[in-house]
Design brief:
Largest sheet: none
Distance between the termini: 82 Å
Low-confidence stretches: none
Strand content: under 5%
Shape: elongated
Oligomer: single chain
Number of helices: 8
Number of strands: 0
Order of helices and strands: HHHHHHHH
Radius of gyration: 30 Å
Helix content: 40-55%
Length: 172
């Protein structure tokens, strides 16, 4: 197989790679740069692949990328994920509605996953499942507060407590 013809000076690439290995904290990026440095230092990708958990083609591809685009092209790119179906402006509006703390104004007893899902479907025409709405509460900084089902231990409410215990089951 013919030897690679480098577009960038091999010694310059090796010197740059050595500086990057000492300066970076990103382990994956550092690993890739080290593999490129070893190839630039004289090791063949096939011999190197026997010692590390990378294929010969992967190492060759990293060398080509570093040569043609520079070492920064070897960095792991952040994956954006699936885009939201709600526009950013509507999320700000939803936050404002939730901060009003008056769900009865919108026809709900309490703000929870099902009520937020119904509100978003009605106002924005976007169907989000209950779990997505629960996640949205969390992203917006709200936490789940369960309603108190047991009357408080106030002495004035002792009769209501006893009635509640009789009707709800056997609690102690």
């Amino acid at each position: 197989m013919p030897a690679r013809v480098y577009k960038t000076d091999k010694d310059q690439l090796l010197a740059e790679g050595k500086l990057i290995v000492n300066a970076t904290n990103d382990a994956k990026f550092q690993h890739k740069v080290e593999m490129v440095n070893l190839v630039l230092g004289g090791m063949t990708p096939s011999a190197l692949s026997e010692y590390v958990r990378e294929s010969k083609n992967t190492i060759t591809s990293w060398v080509k990328t570093a040569d043609e685009q520079g070492f920064d092209a070897l960095r792991v790119k952040k994956q954006s994920g699936r885009p939201t179906r709600l526009p950013v402006e509507s999320i700000a509006d939803i936050r404002a509605v939730l901060e009003e703390d008056d769900p009865k104004k919108y026809g709900y007893n309490v703000w929870d996953g099902p009520s937020l899902s119904a509100y978003i479907a009605r106002e924005y025409g976007v169907n989000l499942c209950v779990r997505q709405c629960q996640r949205m509460f969390h992203r917006l900084g709200f936490s789940l507060i369960r309603p108190q089902t047991f009357p408080s231990k106030n002495k004035d409410l002792e009769e209501e407590r006893e009635l509640f215990k009789k009707n709800s089951g056997n609690y102690s």
